[in-house]
Each structure stands twice: as C-alpha cells, then as structure tokens.
C-alpha cells in the first residue's frame, strides 16, 4: 500500500469501488451494483452460488524447469457476477503449493473443477466469506504445483516471482491467457490485492511484498517463514535439515520426479546439509535482506500471526523481519502461545471480525476502527489476551540473571564451574526434575517470584566455556517452574501438537454450494495442567559462534566467551513460580530430518563433547516489562 494518510470512505472514489453505507439513500441502486458497508465492514449482499468462476494462466518471468519457455501460473478466480465495468472489485489472493499434496489447511482441502476446467471447490473459507462481501478471490497454484508449470524451488526466487507476476497481471503489467491461448485482461478489478496464507503460503505473500510490487496493498502471513535458512537450521545447528529442501519440492509436485531432477540436485547441493552454514543458496531464500525480496522494500501493510511455541516457524522468523520493516508500514500482529497454528481454529469469531475489518480498510477504503485499535494482541495463556501499542512491549527493559554455584539463579556473578555432556535430549527430559543431578545438563532456579514477571522480546545468553572437542551443539532453555494450566503443544498428533483440538460440530462462516461448503469443524484450545513449561530456547553449533557462513572449530581446552540470541517470546511468569535456566546440548525437539521419502528420523545423537561452564562469565539477559527477580 502507499504510505499516504488514510482517508476512510472518501478513498473509495480513488479506489473506484462504489460503496453504499447502510441507511443512506441508494439512488439507482437497481442500475448500478454497489458494495454495502455497515458498521465499518462490508456485508454479504452478493450471491456466492451465482458468482463468476473462471481461470487464466499468467506468464511468469522465469523458466524454472529449463524447458525453454517461461512458466505459466494457473489462477482460479471467483468473483461477484456484478463485477466488471460497473463494479471493479479488489482481490484477496491465496497462493499455495499444497493444492496437490498434502492439501490446504487442517482439513487438507483440495480443488474440484467443472467440465470447463473452472474451480467449483476452493480450499479454505476465504471465497465463501469474502466473495459475498464484494471481493474477487484468487486461488493460485504456486509455480511447479497443481496446474502451474515449472518446478517448486522451496522458497527460491521462482516461487516468489510467480506470485508477483499475478499481482502484475491484475494491474495490467503482465500477460495472461485462456485455454485457447487468447489474452485475458483483469478488467473487473481495481488491482488492489491482499495476500493471505498459512506457513509456506504466507511466506509467499511475504516474499512477494518484499519485491516492492505495486498493487499488493496488504499481506496477512500466518505462522510464515521470512528466512528459508531458519526453516532448516538455527545458528548453524541442523534442525529439519537433511534432505528437507529436496523432499519438500518433491512432495509438493505431483509430476514425475524426472521433470525437475536438475532442480532437485541444485536444492540438495545448495542447502549444504553437511555444514549447516549460511550461503548464497540461503541468501536467495532470505526475505529479510535477500537479493529477491527484502523487508526494506515492503510497502504493503502487514497483519501477522505468529506462535511463540512454533517448532516449525520459530519466533525469530517474525521478530527479525518485523524489526526490519520500514517504520512507514502500517501493521498489526497477534503474538500467541500456540505452535504452527492458524487462529481460525481457536479464536474464530474474533479472527473473522478482525480480518473482515482489516481487508475492508486496506482494500475497500472502508472507514472503521481497525487502525485505532491497539496494534498488538498478545496471548499469555488459555483465554488470556492483552493488547498493546507495539511488539516487543515498549516498556521492556533488560535484566541479567547469573547462575550460582548452589544451583540458584540470581543477579550477581558467582565463581565456580560445572560441566555436562552434549547428548540429544528432548526439552521435557532436559527441564524435568531440575534439582536432580543429570550428567547431560546444568540447571539453575530463582527463588519463587514475589510478583508476576513478564518477558517480552528476545533474550540472549552468554556462556564462558571450554570443550574437549572442536565443537558441540549448545542448548539453553528458559523454563517456568510452577503448576499451571497452559496451552498444550507437547502432544504429538494431527492437531494437538499445534495447541488446539477439535471439539465436535461445525461452524458455517459463509454460503455453500454442492461442491464447496462454507462450514468447518469447531476447534478450541488444547490445554494441560503441568508442573513446568519451557518458555523459550537458544540453539547454536559452537563452531558457528563467529559466523553463520563459515565454521571455526574450537581449540579443545581453550576458554571461549560465546554470546547469541535465544528465540523471542512474550510470556507471563506468575507470582510464586520460579525461573529456570537449563544449559544442555543437542535439542532433540529440533533434531528431526526428512530422508527424502517422507520419513522423519532423529538426525544427530549429539557430539558427545564435554562442555565445561565457568559460572563467572555466564549469564542470561531477559527483556522484562514489570520488574525482575529480587535476588
């Protein structure tokens, strides 16, 4: 979006969208279709069943499969039948790589088509909800997937540029053809477009926005990547790593593997699983500062949703990109305690209301209060939400805690040493029974908190250490010790690992047809009462302590001071609870690798290195809003 001041409904003249406010005289309404706004939001006055359904293929600027032709991107469209010269409408665009496999959303929906090749089933609810409100909805097959040509490149330049080409076509800057090969113009749209999606889908919106393309007015990324590198490794430590880049490309493309064999080889070699280093391959997939997409180029507004307990899209994917966005970018975010979750499944009514206002304001120019509301919603537990002006909390101040020889965690340095072995352990095993001696970790606790304490932002840790080998995987956990009912992301399974569960029944959020209903399973928070909770963590391959781009093995027996950022968080420690610092090795919760055939295996057993910690030079720094432990 442009950075000019908002002008509410007056902007509708500029946008060329006829709007009528409920209760106002509707002169010649029978002759001229109009979008109805009431209470600051559009109303469902257009027929979903009678909407126009069509499809085009947009020419991209890339030849990702090397067949000598520019790849064509399949675009399935549904729009109000009244849209056209008399009513140009904005666009909500959902680009996905998952329409073949595994399917979109938690109900793994796939497209259906009629005899003319037009989509009669659009995955997700966006079409059911927004087309009746006067939007066109575009369902775009990412390059190399479903009916689009080319090869998926796992966050690479073609993935981004294919989506950009669709925005260009909507604004008259790119070519599209029908099934006969005849050119098609998007004469029914204002060109104002919003992209929305979960995970990889939302990353495509972030990537396209980072090209600075005109016409993309807003993006709504949900649990979405901003750096391909951090999808597979954290600070040089391999996480979802071995073969994952190639595996993802193969899984998303239903065509025979031979078609994209050369691309798969480039993914396999470029990702450099052997070292975990950051290189040119990963730089291309960096949407923060990369050569194809960068945060500084974003002018679209942003409404992001991120789970701070997400093991897939870790919190730094949000925090690092958010901080790099130009200050002129209008933005909003939900920061949650869920994992890799779309809030449609847990906060559905609030989500739909907020999303409706957001798109209406950004794409329709409707006058509502969305930009006057607090910018950030933060979740601190089941049904515990607060609002604030920005993220991290503007009032956060750094407090430093230091491990003590007696196993406590306090404010002053303490002499002494401790040691542990780098072995692969789950976070539960690392954090459980902190008073018990464990050869694979060191644990330190504060006294019970006299008052509640809130963490908001990105902690950092500094370790003074020696190794008996050239490297080790260094792991740090910040733990909340105290019994409480929390969002449960510990359980593995189809839904519970995300922090939600299905609760029976369905909600209908829009009109239905025989092929495409607007009804979805009801879901809610999955909770558990637990004695402790791992709040956040830090992970580092010690030989990447100087640089992510090259390895510097450590000299055994030599002392090093190693400092790095942990993953961000916004969390409330209750009075009476205790903060715990656990120093350990390989984090087995982030130690899974695909083998290229869809099988996940534990990747590394740990280096077996002995890590000796000098307590005098070891500390954790926390961005704290409301005070700090008193001792």
Write up this protein:
The structure is a single chain. The chain has 631 residues and is an alpha+beta fold. It folds into 2 domains: 8-228 and 285-388, 3-Layer(aba) Sandwich (Rossmann fold), CATH 3.40.50.1820; 397-624, Galactose-binding domain-like (Jelly Rolls), CATH 2.60.120. The chain is 14% helix and 32% strand. An 11-stranded mixed β-sheet has the order 10-4-5-9-6-11-12-15-16-17-18, with helices on both faces. Strands 19, 20, 21, 24, 29, 34 and 35 form a 7-stranded antiparallel β-sheet that branches. A 4-stranded antiparallel β-sheet has the order 22-31-25-28. A hairpin with a 2-residue loop joins strand 2 and strand 3. The longest helix is centred in the middle third of the chain and has 17 residues, at 348-364. It is globular and about 80 Å long. The two termini are 49 Å apart.
Distance between the termini: 49 Å
Radius of gyration from the CA trace?
A: 25 Å
**Biggest β-sheet, characterized?**
11 strands, mixed
Strand order of the largest sheet: 10-4-5-9-6-11-12-15-16-17-18
Give the fraction of residues assigned to helices.
10-25%
Detail the poorly predicted runs.
Answer: 1-16, 24-30, 593-601
Total E-strand runs = 35
| CATH fold label of the largest domain | Rossmann fold
- How much of the polypeptide forms β-strand, as a percent range? 25-35%
Briefly, what CATH class of the largest domain? Alpha Beta
Oligomer: single chain
């Amino acid at each position: 979006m442009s950075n000019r001041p908002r002008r509410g409904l007056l902007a509708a003249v500029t946008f060329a969208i006829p709007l009528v406010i409920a209760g106002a005289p509707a002169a010649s309404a029978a002759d001229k279709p109009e979008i109805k706004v009431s209470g600051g939001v559009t109303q469902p006055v257009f027929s979903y069943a009678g909407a126009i359904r069509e499809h085009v293929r947009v020419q991209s600027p890339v030849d990702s499969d090397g067949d000598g032709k520019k790849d064509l991107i399949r675009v399935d469209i549904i729009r109000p039948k009244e849209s056209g010269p008399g009513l140009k409408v904005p666009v909500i665009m959902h680009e996905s790589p998952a329409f073949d496999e595994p399917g979109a959303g938690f109900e793994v929906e796939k497209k259906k088509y009629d005899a003319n090749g037009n989509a009669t089933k659009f995955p997700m609810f966006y079409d059911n909800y927004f087309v009746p409100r006067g939007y066109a909805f575009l369902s775009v097959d990412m390059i190399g997937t479903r009916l689009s040509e080319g090869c998926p490149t796992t966050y690479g330049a073609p993935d981004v540029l294919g989506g950009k080409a669709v925005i260009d076509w909507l604004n008259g800057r790119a070519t599209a053809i029908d099934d006969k090969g005849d050119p098609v113009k998007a004469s029914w749209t204002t060109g104002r477009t919003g992209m929305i999606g979960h995970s990889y889908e939302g990353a495509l919106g972030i990537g396209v926005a980072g090209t600075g393309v005109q016409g993309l007015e807003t993006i709504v990324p949900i649990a979405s990547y901003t750096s391909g590198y951090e999808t597979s490794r954290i600070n040089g430590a391999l996480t979802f790593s071995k073969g994952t880049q190639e595996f993802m490309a193969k899984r998303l493309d239903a065509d025979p593997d031979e078609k994209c064999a050369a691309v798969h080889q480039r993914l396999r070699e470029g990702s450099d699983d052997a070292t975990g280093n950051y290189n040119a391959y990963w730089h291309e997939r960096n949407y923060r500062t990369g050569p194809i997409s960068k945060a500084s180029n974003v002018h679209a507004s942003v409404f992001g949703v991120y789970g701070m307990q997400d093991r897939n899209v870790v919190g730094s994917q949000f925090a690092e990109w958010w901080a790099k966005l130009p200050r002129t970018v209008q933005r909003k975010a939900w920061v949650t305690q869920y994992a890799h979750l779309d809030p449609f499944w847990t906060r559905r009514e609030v989500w739909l209301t907020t999303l409706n206002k957001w798109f209406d304001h950004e794409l329709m120019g409707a006058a509502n209060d969305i930009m006057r509301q607090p910018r950030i919603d933060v979740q601190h537990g089941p049904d515990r939400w607060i609002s604030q002006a920005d993220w991290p909390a503007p009032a956060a101040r750094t407090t430093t805690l230091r491990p003590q020889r007696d196993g406590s965690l306090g404010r002053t340095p303490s002499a002494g040493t401790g040691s542990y072995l780098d072995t692969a352990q789950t976070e539960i095993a690392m954090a459980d029974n902190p008073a018990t001696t464990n050869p694979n970790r060191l644990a330190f606790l504060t006294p019970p908190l006299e008052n509640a304490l809130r963490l908001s932002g990105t902690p950092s840790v500094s370790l003074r250490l020696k190794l008996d080998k050239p490297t080790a995987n260094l792991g740090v956990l910040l733990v909340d010790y105290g019994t409480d009912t929390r969002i449960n992301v510990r359980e593995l399974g189809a839904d519970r690992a995300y922090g939600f569960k299905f609760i029976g029944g369905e909600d209908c959020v829009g009109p239905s047809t025989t092929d495409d209903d607007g009804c979805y399973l009801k879901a809610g928070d999955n909770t558990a009462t637990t004695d402790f909770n791992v709040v956040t963590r830090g992970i580092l391959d010690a030989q990447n302590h100087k640089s992510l781009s090259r390895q510097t093995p450590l000299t055994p027996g030599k002392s090093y001071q190693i400092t790095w950022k942990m993953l961000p968080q916004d969390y409330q420690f209750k009075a009476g609870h205790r903060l715990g610092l656990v120093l350990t090795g390989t984090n087995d919760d982030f130690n899974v690798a695909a083998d290229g055939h869809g099988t996940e295996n534990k990747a590394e057993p740990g280096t077996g290195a002995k890590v000796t910690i000098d307590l005098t030079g070891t500390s954790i720094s926390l961005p704290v809003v409301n005070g700090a432990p008193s001792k």
